[in-house]
Design goal:
This protein is an alpha/beta fold. Helices cover 32% and strands 18% of the residues.
Amino acid sequence: MFRRSTRRPAVSLLAGLCLLACADAGGQDRPPNILLISVDTLRADRINAYGYEHPLLTPHLDALANDGILFESFISASPWTTPAHMSLLTSLDPSAHGLNRAFGDLVKGEETGRFVRLADDHTTLAEVLRASGYRTGAFTGGITVEPEYGFDQGFDHFETSMYKLRNENVAGVLDWIAEQPEPWFVFLHTFEVHAPYLHTDLLPDAFGDFARRYRKKVAGLETEEALSLSARNHQGFWLNLWLTKEGMMQREFTESLYLAGVRSMDRWIGKIVSDLRARGLYDDTLIVVTSDHGDEFGEHDAAAIYDAHGHSTFDEILRVPLILKLPGSIHAGTRLSGVARGVDLMPTLLEAVGAKAFPPAMQGASLVSWWQHPEAAAADRRTAFSEAGARDNEVKSLRSADYKYAIEIDAKSVTRHGRSHWPERLAGEALYDLRRDPGEKTNLLEANPTPEVIAIADGFREELRQRMARPAPHVEVIELDPEALRRLEALGYTD
């Protein structure tokens, strides 16, 4: 499906926001271009530059990291697509921008659904940049990143043609860039790595005959139209069922399918970077590669090995890459520790390009001082707040460099009181020591509730209560057409 949007929100919201200067962007005469690439479902720990040992899986991402800055612990605001991306683009927590409902909430009857749209009184990254003289273009995979949800706020041009990447749609992005006066801001989002996994040509030879049969099964699913067709035929989960029937719903195979998608995405990033170099744009462009969430492969649930995210706040789902290449490749090869958050991206980009004033409602904080003074990253004690609401229940967590605290609120309480209510009794509560237990296997509140452990949990609990006590945001309610629901079903977001 291909959509364009040119919706323009009220300019009064942006009055006096900012003019851009050049001193902080490498001494240029004008602000740099910005290319923000979000690879849906890309785990940080499946990238070689982040320590993955598989040979030559991500050479182009690694090269970009060597030319830029790598953030070792970048934590998403949510383990599923819509709220996580809206947090990246507004610097607001999901419970603050309001797009934090479960996709199960969408289904009303067989063919209709209701969802919420970002209210116009919120200010997006694209709005600030456009008010500052940037041409703004969004190229997304649609489905969960649709203009109808408010993702179009601030964009001059919006397409939803990037479900899986092909020569023609990538060329469309690059051609749009070539036609724009500088500076420009492009937000590129794709489901290239997200299930259904299609890159069978990149599977290991060990899977042999079965890989060939799988290749025939998924042939023709490269486009969003084909994905919609599979859902229209009531086959939203047909591939999962077929893998189970064939005895191949096994971690070794499904993770190999996922890694094939990672390898494919890496090749596309190499193509995009090569094109920018050929056009003479690479040195003048601030390039960001990140993701909204990862995918689980049995780390905490042996059955969660295919399209498994949205339901928890473990690091395999929340820890995503953040690689940032500055204009002129200054600070190349920098690696920064410390906990960075999805909501920090917007203020970071605004400061990096020289913004003189920021929207006052932002909940994140710029990371620019981290690469200017690397010791600041290690000393920074910010905590990452994440919210998992893709199911009827709710999981919320706070993560510091040393610990993660998480709570679960049952579906009955969520139905009665919404997604920001602290119930009389929690359905679950956990504290993990990430220094000694990076895999989050041992809940200290159950295994070792010492006075020190209880005191640490009490501190996190109070901070989390304060975050949840914020007033509920204003949102606009919209009706989703049947086709939108079918596309969501095919991605696995509705039952």
